[in-house]
């Protein structure tokens, strides 16, 4: 492991006013999103869509890194490998390396993430293709007696082994334990489960000799479930999230990037703004959004080359809003079409 290389990658990913674009949806997942918009999901349409994202003018102003799916890193943009196209814009290439979740034996409704077999060899290949960081996602369902200790331990072990192998290969691991929003759980119940999950993950990371200084935590915000009947303010989300992280995450971890986790784009940005406005943090705080960055651009594009410029504008604006949120400068005026030009001019 080259500590200087890992350190410089971490610093670049956590650059001020910048976050990470998660464009690593599996073929199945992006196929569902395309189908909802009447877009045929083929290798070429998926390539064209990702190329649209990565060639957005000025994307690098608020995006430091992009997480790719395996199919994408093997594709080309204008005859050049995708990683090279991103590098020319000053954006760091990342790669999703897990193979997704499968059912956890003996525990209905829970999963564990697979993909460790052959990972060392795949990491070497990805690094040679231009990747500089990796991502592994583990999901934890909320419910009565969920997540179980078995689910937490199985996924914590896999996350730790993934992170250790990534650092061995000279790649910065984005360690992503996600407590899901599905359900009717309260803000407090989410915080309790996240403390258990994060505590187990960092314990296993230590067991597997993962350097906390050379990794980034990707995690959900503390949120009530989608079906929770009450209302929770942005400031309550911020307070609960920071309290959980302060209780669970070592101060030696350089940065935490938040996933949107099924939130709509504007609430995700509002919550990010509230968290980043809440006061000094021992970590650099940022975002690693997928749908909350892409949704509007995908809808505008709708599979038509004639809509690329408008889709670029949609992604530019969404990235800008989240860049403003990192400084606590986002407000509802940023979403007003009549004032968007002014926001861009003075960002």
Total strand segments = 12
Q: What sort of overall outline do the alpha carbons produce when their principal axes are compared?
A: globular
For the record, the count of structural domains works out to 1
Q: What value does the Rg take, in angstroms?
A: 19 Å
Tell me the span between the first and last alpha carbons. 38 Å
Instruction: Write out the CATH superfamily name.
Output: Aldolase class I
In terms of quaternary structure, what is this?
single chain
Provide structural commentary:
The structure is a single chain. The chain is an alpha/beta fold. 46% of the residues lie in helices and 16% in strands. It is built from 13 helices and twelve strands. The chain has helices spanning 3-13, 27-36, 43-54, 70-73, 82-88, 119-128, 149-168, 187-207, 234-248, 265-276, 291-301, 308-326, 340-345, and strands spanning 19-23, 63-68, 76-77, 80-81, 92-96, 101-103, 111-113, 133-140, 172-179, 216-219, 255-258, 284-289. It is globular, with a radius of gyration of 19 Å. The termini are far apart.
Helices and strands in order, then pairings?
Layout: H1 3-13, E1 19-23, H2 27-36, H3 43-54, E2 63-68, H4 70-73, E3 76-77, E4 80-81, H5 82-88, E5 92-96, E6 101-103, E7 111-113, H6 119-128, E8 133-140, H7 149-168, E9 172-179, H8 187-207, E10 216-219, H9 234-248, E11 255-258, H10 265-276, E12 284-289, H11 291-301, H12 308-326, H13 340-345
Parallel strand pairs: 1-2, 1-12, 2-5, 5-8, 8-9, 9-10, 10-11, 11-12
Antiparallel strand pairs: 3-4, 6-7
Helix pairs in contact: 7-8, 8-9, 9-10, 10-11, 10-12, 11-12
């Amino acid at each position: 492991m080259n500590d200087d290389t890992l350190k410089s990658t971490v610093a670049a990913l956590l650059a001020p006013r910048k976050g990470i674009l998660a464009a690593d949806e599996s073929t199945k997942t992006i196929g569902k999103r395309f189908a909802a918009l009447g877009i045929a999901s083929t290798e070429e349409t998926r390539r064209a869509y990702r190329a649209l994202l990565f060639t957005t003018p000025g994307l690098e102003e608020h995006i430091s890194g992009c997480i790719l799916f395996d199919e994408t890193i093997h594709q080309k943009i204008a005859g050049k490998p995708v990683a090279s196209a991103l590098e020319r814009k000053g954006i760091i290439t990342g790669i999703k390396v897990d193979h997704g979740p499968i059912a956890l034996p003996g525990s209905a409704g829970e999963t564990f993430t697979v993909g460790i077999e052959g990972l060392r060899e795949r990491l070497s290949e990805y690094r040679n293709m231009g990747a500089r960081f990796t991502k592994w996602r583990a999901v934890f369902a909320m419910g009565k007696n969920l997540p179980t200790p078995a689910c937490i331990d199985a996924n914590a072990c896999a996350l730790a082994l993934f992170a250790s192998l990534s650092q061995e290969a000279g790649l910065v691991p984005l360690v992503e334990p996600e407590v899901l929003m599905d359900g009717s759980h309260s803000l407090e119940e989410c915080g309790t489960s996240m403390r258990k999950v994060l505590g187990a993950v960092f314990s296993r990371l230590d067991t597997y000799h993962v350097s906390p200084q050379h990794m980034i935590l990707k995690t959900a915000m503390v949120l009530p479930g989608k079906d929770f009947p009450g209302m929770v303010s942005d400031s309550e989300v911020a307070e609960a999230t920071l309290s959980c992280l302060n209780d669970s995450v070592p101060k030696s971890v350089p940065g935490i990037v938040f996933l949107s986790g099924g939130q709509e784009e504007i609430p995700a940005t509002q919550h990010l703004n509230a968290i980043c406005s809440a006061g000094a943090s021992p970590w650099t705080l940022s975002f690693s959004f997928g749908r909350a960055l892409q949704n509007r651009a995908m809808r505008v594009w709708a599979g038509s080359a004639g809509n690329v410029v408008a889709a670029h504008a949609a992604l530019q604006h969404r990235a800008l809003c989240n860049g403003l949120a990192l400084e606590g400068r986002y407000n509802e005026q940023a979403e007003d079409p009549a004032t968007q030009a002014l926001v861009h001019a003075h960002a």
